[in-house]
Amino acid sequence: MDPLLTLAIAAATPAALVTLGYAGLCWVKPVTTCRRCAGTGRTTTRVLRRPRACRRCDRGHRLRAGRRIFNYFHRLRAEATR
Ligand SMILES: [Zn+2]
Predict the structure, then answer these.
(1) Cα pseudo-dihedral 24, 20, 59, 79, rounded to 10
(2) C-alpha distances in angstroms, 15 versus 65, 66, 67, 82?
(3) Residue 13 C-alpha to ligand 1 middle, in angstroms?
């Protein structure tokens, strides 16, 4: 076997596994807990520390970045083929 091909396979396999693993995770669990409010859905203001609704999420849950990218291309394809 060609050593260059072996090197290419050794370099590409972990990257492919990580990519497919994240795609599978986005398919199985598209929603994750918000890191800003730690899943509570509420944050405090910086000045007076008053509780407010978290602006980054919907009640403590938010879509993963991979799922948002998938949804974007899915809608783009649906609009293009309509
Ligand atoms: Zn949040």
Answers:
(1) -90
(2) 18, 16, 19, 35
(3) 35
Binned at pLDDT 50, 70 and 90, residue 82 comes out as confident
Q: Read off the pLDDT of each residue in 25-38 and give the average, rounded to a whole number.
A: 93
Q: How close is the Cα of 47 to the center of ligand 1, in Å?
A: 19
**76 pLDDT more than 90:** yes
Rounded to the nearest angstrom, the distance between the alpha carbon of 29 and the centre of ligand 1 is 17
Q: Is 17 left (phi over 0), alpha (psi -120 to 50) or beta?
A: alpha
Q: How many residues make up the chain in this entry? A: 82
Question: 57 C-alpha to center of ligand 1: Å?
Answer: 4
Which residues are within 8 A (CB) of 53 and not within 5 positions of it... i.e. 6 or more apart? 41, 42, 43
pTM of the predicted structure, to 2 decimals: 0.69
Domain spans of the chain, in order of start: 3-80
